[in-house]
Amino acid sequence: MLDDPQQWPEGTGLYCVMNAGDLTENHNRFQLAPFTNSRGELGSLWANILGLSFVLLLEPLDISENPQLARGVFRPGQIVITYPNSVNWLAMSCDDGKEHARTMSLKFVRQIHL
Question: Which of 12, 31, 69, 106 could join 8 in a cystine, given CB atoms 3.0 to 4.6 angstroms apart?
Fold first, then answer.
């Protein structure tokens, strides 16, 4: 699959699993967790990068096995991150010949002191 993106089954790839109204905490950690399917095989990887949650689906989409993907954004084109004094863009591309222009946004709400 890594050698040829055209060989990925339909529905496989990166999903952003954050939805409108979700709150997240921006932290300087990278978290990664594997998920196995009903056959005990690696079916997907969940990743949290600076508070942004993604799932990399490695097998055809089955909502009954991956209900968190029902509202996820499949292969987003970019994420716009807005802070009080700056705007940052995280642009992504996929070599699959399809348009993935969906823009998601993340807005700074408040500083949390622990």
Answer: 12
